[in-house]
Design brief:
With about 60 residues, the protein is α/β, with parallel strands linked by helices. The protein has three helices and three strands. The radius of gyration is 12 Å and the shape is flat.
Length: about 60
Amino acid sequence: MTTATFTLVMVLPLPDETQSWPGKLMEAVPGIEVLCPEGPEDVGAALGRADAAYGTRLFAAVRRR
């Protein structure tokens, strides 16, 4: 059986209560890849690979491109 892959982008900065999510998700969900682009120039490339995205500043990051 093949494990499906899934890419989630978490746009920084993350609220305090969600900062541990990337590591926890990768431990708990088989096949998930969590990307946390460091700067605005990296967000577009990460979103191009994403199946889903999360972040309090997601729209601001996209507008910068």
